[in-house]
Each structure stands twice: as structure tokens, then as C-alpha cells.
């Protein structure tokens, strides 16, 4: 049997034009996809904990990087965008409190659907709003690299 396609795929159509931000988005997609295909309660509990903990950490890392880029290019919607990030971070904390000690395949699937919808909307609507402002790709890439420390390669860790 061949390898199954991931539930949520990053495509070039989702590119914001800044390599490090696109790489972050790819990592977030891979992290969320860990929830796909869970069919045992033990797997669900462990995987949901891992996904929520990883999103908490990697989300902060990515949001800091993205906000630095938006400030550098003087994106006028940066405050609203930052508020979206803060709202998502608070929601992840709520989910961690609610699901941190439990898990079942149905709940993992609902979480997968929610996170996929949120990230797809955030990239294609919210992030695309700043895309015209990062026309100077070199400046945006430089700001993105300077904004956050080097993190582990979550693309490799996530599968």
C-alpha cells in the first residue's frame, strides 16, 4: 500500500513570499497533520498533548518572527494581526487545559478540522494581507531570520 496523502497540504499557492515564514507555515501544517489517522485512545491522548504543546511553542516562535517582519515593512494591519496571534495562543492554552489529560480519536479529528481551518484561513486571508508589503524579499527574509533563534527542524521531527 502506498503512502497516504496528508490531510492538510501546504501548497505554493499559500506562499507569502518570505522563505522562512513559508517554512514556518509548512512546519505548522506538519504538526497539525500529526492528528490525522488516529484510531486508538492511547494514541489520541499522547498525540493531542504533543500537538498542543508543540503548537504552543512553535506558534510563539513563528508569531514573533512574523510580527517582526510586519513591523519592519510597516504593515498597517500589524496590530490587528498581532491580536489574531494572541487570540490563537490563548485558545491553544484553553485547549491544552481542556484536552491535556484526555483524548479520543473523535476529539483528535475535531481538533484536526479546527486547526486546519484556522491555519488555512489565517495564511490565506490574514497573512496574505501583508504579502504586498514584503515585496523586498531580501529585507523581509533578513528580518525574519533575525527575529527568532534557530529552532529544531520540525519538518524532520514531524515526519
What's the SSE blueprint?
Layout: H1 19-33, H2 41-72, H3 78-99, H4 105-130, H5 137-147, H6 154-157
Helix pairs in contact: 1-2, 1-4, 2-3, 2-4, 2-5
What does this structure look like?
Helices cover about 70% and strands about 0% of the residues. The mean pLDDT is about 85. It is elongated and about 50 Å long. With about 160 residues, the chain is mainly alpha-helical. The chain is built from six helices and no strands. It has helices at about 20-35, 40-70, 80-100, 105-130, 135-145, 155. Helix 2 (about 40-70) packs across helix 5.
Poorly predicted tracts of residues: none
DSSP helix fraction: 55-70%
Q: Using only CA atoms, what is the Rg?
A: 16 Å
Distance from first to last alpha carbon: 18 Å
Number of strands: 0
Main β-sheet, in a few words? none
Order of helices and strands: HHHHHH
Mean pLDDT: 83
Instruction: Specify the structural class.
Output: mainly alpha
Count the DSSP helices.
6
The general outline is elongated
SS strand fraction: under 5%
Short description:
Helices cover 69% and strands 0% of the residues.
Features of this protein?
159 residues, mainly alpha, elongated
Amino acid at each position: 500500500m502506498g503512502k497516504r496523502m496528508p490531510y492538510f497540504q501546504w501548497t505554493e499557492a499559500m506562499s507569502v513570499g518570505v522563505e522562512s515564514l513559508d517554512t514556518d507555515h509548512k512546519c505548522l501544517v506538519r504538526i497539525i497533520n500529526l492528528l490525522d489517522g488516529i484510531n486508538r485512545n492511547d494514541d489520541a491522548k499522547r498525540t493531542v498533548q504533543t500537538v498542543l504543546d508543540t503548537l504552543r511553542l512553535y506558534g510563539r516562535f513563528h508569531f514573533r518572527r512574523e510580527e517582526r517582519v510586519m513591523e519592519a515593512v510597516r504593515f498597517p494591519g500589524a496590530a490587528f494581526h498581532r491580536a489574531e496571534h494572541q487570540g490563537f495562543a490563548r485558545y491553544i492554552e484553553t485547549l491544552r487545559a481542556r484536552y491535556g489529560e484526555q483524548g479520543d480519536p473523535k476529539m483528535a479529528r475535531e481538533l484536526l478540522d479546527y486547526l486546519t481551518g484556522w491555519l488555512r484561513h489565517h495564511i490565506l486571508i490574514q497573512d496574505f494581507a501583508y504579502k504586498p508589503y514584503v515585496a523586498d524579499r531580501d529585507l523581509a527574509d533578513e528580518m525574519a531570520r533575525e527575529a527568532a533563534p534557530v529552532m529544531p527542524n520540525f519538518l524532520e521531527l514531524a515526519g
